[in-house]
Design goal:
Strand content: under 5%
Distance between the termini: 15 Å
Structural class: mainly alpha
Amino acid sequence: ALRAERDQRSDLRAQLAGARATAVMLAGLPALGLLIGTALGADPLHVLLHTGAGLGCLAAGGALEGLGLWWVQRIVRGAETAA
């Protein structure tokens, strides 16, 4: 019984690897966007922090980022408690 439970937990971890990878990717996307903008010669931090449209985009992006991370965390916790 213990071996079966261990195998089940191992299988669950493998199945949740995709959701966890999604969370890591979501967390890194804003930094990647800033790096790409800088590489293209723009000043993304100035635009985000000193223009009305930039502040709106920053607020909307932050809200969507938080919502996405919350959703992935909810999926992982739900699967872990169900197992």
